[in-house]
Specification:
Blueprint (H helix, E strand, L loop, with lengths): L1 H23 L3 E7 L4 E6 L8 E8 L2 E7 L5 E9 L2 E9 L4 E8 L4 E9 L17 E9 L2 E6 L24 E10 L2 E12 L2 E13 L5 H7 L4 E3 L3
Antiparallel strand pairs: 1-2, 1-3, 3-4, 4-5, 5-6, 6-7, 7-8, 8-9, 9-10, 10-11, 11-12, 12-13, 13-14
């Protein structure tokens, strides 16, 4: 009798814990997302789903998958892993010459930081590419603050061996050979992107070009404009 009672009191909490875990791992759906925290905004029920929408899957406490459903044919999946830097997304590929590593870091400090590295897959140095040994070399850096994106490009000959970081002050931005600043603005259903590009000539950065692009976005929030604007319809700027 005692064993039966003990078994009941043991199983009931276990079932409750399992139920909570299964519910917490259920996907949730939103119309918008905070790019700087990766938390959904304006939650919607499954039965009310209409394109576009965002699905967030909490795989476990350290992993989450965010899927942007723009329409039935266009979607984008981002897988993030949480560590001491924050939520980190890694994209790696080989372009036939070197390994490319792209880290996006969301640390909750009001910015989205992206770091791009190249790595020689073969052992030893490759002087022709300016890569010393197999250590990853910093090639690019992007910083999103509010609705402004700053993108920096570094010479591979600079051999910047920077450890992965979420602190902008640790990045040698002054060594960039090109700097591109994009300002996003959404008004009356149109996304306007004003871009200014600087290139290093001798010892200083000089203005190379100023561009302005416009896209029709309707009532899409900024998160969609930022993540999907290359796939949007171009329109004439006023």
């Amino acid at each position: 009798m005692f064993n039966r009672i003990f078994l009941v009191f043991f199983i009931l909490p276990l079932l409750a814990e399992t139920s909570c875990q299964s519910q917490s791992n259920m996907p949730t759906f939103f119309r918008d997302i905070n790019l700087f925290t990766l938390k959904g905004k304006d939650e919607i029920l499954y039965n009310d789903l209409k394109y576009p929408y965002i699905q967030i899957d909490s795989i476990n406490e350290q992993k989450k998958k965010i899927t942007y459903f723009y329409n039935k044919d266009l979607r984008r999946e981002d897988l993030y892993t949480q560590n001491e830097l924050g939520w980190v997304k890694l994209i790696s590929f080989n372009d036939g010459l070197v390994d490319n590593l792209r880290y996006e870091i969301v640390s909750g400090n009001g910015i989205v930081l992206s770091l791009g590295y190249v790595k020689n897959p073969a052992s030893g140095a490759d002087p022709a590419l300016g890569i010393e040994g197999t250590d990853p070399v910093l090639q690019s850096c992007s910083i999103l603050r509010g609705s402004t994106l700053n993108h920096y490009v570094f010479s591979m000959n600079a051999n910047i061996h920077l450890p992965i970081t979420n602190k902008v002050e640790q990045i040698p931005l002054k060594r960039a050979t090109r700097v591109r600043t994009e300002k996003f603005n959404v008004s009356k259903g149109v996304l306007t992107i004003e871009a200014e590009q600087l290139s290093r000539k001798k010892d200083q950065l000089e203005l190379e070009s100023i561009q302005k692009q416009c896209f029709y976005v309707g009532n899409l929030p900024f998160s969609w404009c930022y993540t999907h604007y290359p796939n949007l319809e171009n329109v004439d700027c006023e």
